[in-house]
Specification:
Protein name: Ribonuclease P protein component 4
Number of domains: 1
Cofactor: Zn(2+)
Largest sheet: 3 strands, antiparallel
Bound molecules: zinc ion
Family: Belongs to the eukaryotic/archaeal RNase P protein component 4 family.
Radius of gyration: 16 Å
Structural class: alpha+beta
Helix content: 40-55%
Number of strands: 3
Order of helices and strands: HHHEEE
Subunit structure: Consists of a catalytic RNA component and at least 4-5 protein subunits.
Number of helices: 3
Strand content: 15-25%
Keywords: Cytoplasm, Endonuclease, Hydrolase, Metal-binding, Nuclease, tRNA processing, Zinc
């Protein structure tokens, strides 16, 4: 096997980490209806991966995790989304706290 530059290796780790986070996110979505406690576990794993590999959690996944109590947020169940002056306001129904995310269309990165 050829030598891989350190930077490339780091990128690879982050690519794999992101893939794992998406997979766990899918599992969390699927399991939530019947096993909400499993969803919590998946959220924990997502956060662990993110911290261990210093990979940021993809925006879509992040907006589905309460940053105060780390609940997995399910629209129509335990979260409310509102649009407000360029922000998405996410209110967690468990801890009653709000999070704001700037609302803008994703631009293609060059
Ligand atoms: Zn919360």
């Amino acid at each position: 096997m050829s030598r891989i530059a350190r930077k490339q290796q780091k990128n690879l780790i982050q690519v794999i980490a992101t893939q794992r986070m998406w997979r766990l996110f899918e599992l969390a979505k699927r399991e939530h209806a019947e096993h909400p406690e499993r969803s919590e576990r998946y959220v924990q794993l997502i956060r662990n991966i993110s911290m261990r590999t210093r990979t940021s959690i993809p925006r879509e996944i992040k907006s589905r995790i309460c940053k105060h109590c780390y609940t997995f947020l399910v629209p129509g169940k335990n979260v409310r989304y509102r649009l407000k002056e360029g922000y998405i306001v996410v209110s967690c129904q468990r801890c009653r706290k709000e999070m704001r995310y700037p609302y803008k269309r994703l631009k293609n990165k060059g």
